[in-house]
Amino acid sequence: MDNLARVKAVYQAFTRGALTEVVEQLHHSVHWYEAESSPYADGNPYVGPDEVAGGVFQRLQKDYPDLQILAERYYEMDNKVVVEGRYKGLHHVTKKPLDAQFVHVWQLKDGRVSQFRQFTDTLKWRLNAFSL
After folding, report:
1. From CA 64, how far away is CA 46, in angstroms rounded?
2. Domain boundaries in the chain?
3. CATH code of the domain made up of 3-129
4. If phi over 0 gives left and psi between -120 and 50 gives alpha, with beta otherwise, what is residue 64?
5. I need a labelling partner for 79 at 20 to 30 A (CA). Which of 27, 28, 42, 93 fits?
6. Closest CA relative to residue 126, chosen from 49, 35, 61, 46
7. Residue ranges of the SnoaL-like domain (predicted)?
8. Does the reported pTM lie above 0.85?
9. What pLDDT does 128 receive?
């Protein structure tokens, strides 16, 4: 499977809620970076699949049980895939809807994700999580 197909498979697994499939695509030494000022950036960089699963995926699943990660455009170059898209979901406590754009930069090594960088509107994420 080439890098583009592998990254597309990750988004399909997210859509199905198959987080174990996503974790299986991570290199054993993956470095995962959530966007600066994101509520989930407190562990940056998350190193290794277990840190990513516990520090990012489980928290997202709790806060946004219906979160959709909608990939819209893909760009492939060498060992990187860049993806534009949107996050949509409802915060489980505030019940506020989230609709935020993103850019994801995936780097692959030996057929696995070795680095991930997220760019998104962190203000929308923060306002969404708090009742004002």
Report:
1. 20
2. 3-129
3. 3.10.450.50
4. beta
5. 42
6. 35
7. 7-114
8. yes
9. 82
Q: Divide the 132 residues of the chain into consecutive groups of 10 and give the mean pLDDT of each group.
A: 94 94 97 96 98 97 96 97 97 94 97 97 88 53
pLDDT at 131: 57
The CA distance from 25 to 38, in Å, is 23
- Count, residues in the chain: 132
Q: Do 35 and 46 meet the contact criterion of CB atoms below 8 Å apart?
A: no
Q: What one-character-per-residue DSSP string does 37-52 give?
A: T-TTGGGPSEESHHHH
The pLDDT assigned to 12 comes to 97
Taking residue 20's Cβ as centre, other Cβ atoms within 10 Å add up to 10
Contact 106, 116 (CB under 8 A): yes
Q: Whole-angstrom Cα distance, residue 72 to residue 40? A: 23
End-to-end CA distance of the chain: 46
76: tokens are 């492939």
pLDDT at position 25 is: 96
Looking at residue 70, what is its pLDDT?
Answer: 97
